[in-house]
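User: Here's a structure from my thesis project, written as structure tokens. My advisor, Dr. K., wants to see whether a designed sequence matches the one we expressed. Can you design one independently, without my sequence as a hint?
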């Protein structure tokens, strides 16, 4: 989603753009998410700072986050940075960076959806999504969290259990209440929506080529890369490889603390005449259910592991019984769970901007849980920076160089 959106916005500004990927558009991280365009996601997901919560995660028996013990020596330094960035003053700084992106994320998607036409419009729905709570204590915490968003213009409503079941009659009585995030659209096929944007790029004269970005080479006049149709040379090159971006920036000498949070999904049928019309998050269970074109998609929380380690969908096994209590799921519709990788930086703010060590090198990665949400607005911001337009927000807060400032490490 990020790479396609950057290509579209550069194209709109008169640039001749080639998209290069090893696969077709929308078949990696953008394929497997919950399909939310999260206008409300101003407050970043942070590492817990309460001792009891930390001890709970350390036991490695939770649903919302698990880890591979073998990976801890490699990911521990990043986890420490992640923990440091959960300090209140650092969270506020991340919120100031995320707020202008989230404020425009729906408008920028809407603009592309309108331009794309029926192919995209049928995939996007404007009912919002439901954050469901199982206890009165967690409901009150969710309400307090939502009220922090009032100053950012987020449209939400607090629902009682009875009001929730007016919207979704087949949800369990175990849910005592919910926050209805009304201003966040959803997609029933995020991978297909990404492909629809890529088709728009091609219809408008763009080119899509298959190639391996690791074969990138610096030239006196810019950059070159081999593709399935031959070598492509360009003055500017944008790295938008999500969780694989480090395979480009590290060999070029950039020390950017990119890590990966893995996650899984599985599609299910429904029992009887049950229906689910909104995506729902079981906040206490640590998973989401979303109505998709392929069935009801269960998406898990976070798995900390080496990016390319074999799948170990223990969370799905823990989530599925609770998900069946929440909603009448039927059989699994796929033989194996899908696994995706979320590219994360310790402050949960993406890198958008110039690669300062090289002329013509640009970055757009590290969107954590919100690459699908922030793709189009990222494309706009980076295209404005690259073409000399006045950026709609201060770009320095997204610069890769922020990680070299002791105050922001």
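Assistant: Designed independently from the structure alone:
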């Amino acid at each position: 989603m990020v790479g396609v959106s950057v290509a579209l916005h550069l194209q709109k500004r008169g640039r001749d753009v080639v998209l290069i990927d090893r696969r077709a558009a929308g078949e990696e991280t953008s394929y497997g998410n919950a399909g939310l365009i999260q206008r409300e996601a101003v407050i970043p997901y942070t590492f817990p700072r309460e001792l009891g919560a930390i001890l709970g995660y350390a036991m490695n028996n939770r649903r919302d986050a698990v880890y591979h013990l073998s990976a801890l020596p490699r990911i521990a330094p990043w986890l420490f940075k992640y923990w440091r960035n959960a300090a209140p003053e650092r969270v506020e700084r991340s919120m100031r960076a995320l707020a202008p992106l989230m404020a425009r994320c729906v408008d920028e998607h809407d603009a592309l959806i309108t331009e794309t036409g029926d192919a995209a419009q049928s995939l996007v729905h404007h009912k919002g999504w439901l954050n469901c709570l199982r206890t009165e204590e967690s409901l009150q915490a969710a309400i307090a969290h939502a009220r922090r968003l009032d100053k950012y213009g987020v449209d939400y409503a607090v629902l009682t259990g009875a009001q929730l079941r007016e919207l979704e009659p087949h949800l369990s009585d175990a849910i005592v209440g919910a926050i209805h995030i009304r201003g966040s659209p959803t997609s029933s096929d995020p991978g297909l929506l990404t492909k629809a944007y890529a088709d728009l790029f091609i219809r408008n004269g763009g080119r899509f080529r298959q190639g391996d970005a690791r074969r990138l080479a610096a030239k006196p006049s810019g950059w070159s890369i081999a593709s399935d149709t031959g070598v492509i040379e360009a003055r500017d090159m944008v790295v938008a490889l999500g969780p694989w971006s480090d395979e480009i920036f590290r060999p070029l000498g950039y020390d950017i603390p990119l890590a990966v949070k893995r996650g899984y999904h599985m599609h299910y049928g429904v029992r009887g005449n049950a229906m689910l019309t909104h995506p729902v998050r079981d906040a206490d269970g640590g998973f989401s259910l979303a109505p998709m074109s392929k069935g009801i998609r269960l998406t898990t929380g976070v798995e900390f592991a080496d990016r390319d380690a074999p799948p170990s969908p223990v969370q799905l096994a823990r989530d599925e019984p609770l998900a069946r209590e929440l909603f009448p799921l039927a059989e699994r519709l796929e033989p194996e769970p899908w696994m995706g990788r979320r590219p994360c930086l310790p402050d949960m703010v993406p890198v958008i901007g110039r690669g300062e060590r090289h002329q013509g090198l640009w970055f757009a990665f590290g969107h954590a849980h919100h690459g699908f949400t922030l793709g189009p607005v990222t494309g706009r911001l980076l295209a404005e920076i690259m073409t000399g337009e006045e950026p709609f927000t201060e770009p320095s807060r997204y610069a890769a160089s922020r990680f070299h400032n002791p105050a922001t490490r």
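When you compare it with your expressed construct, this may help: The first strand starts at residue 18 and ends at 21.
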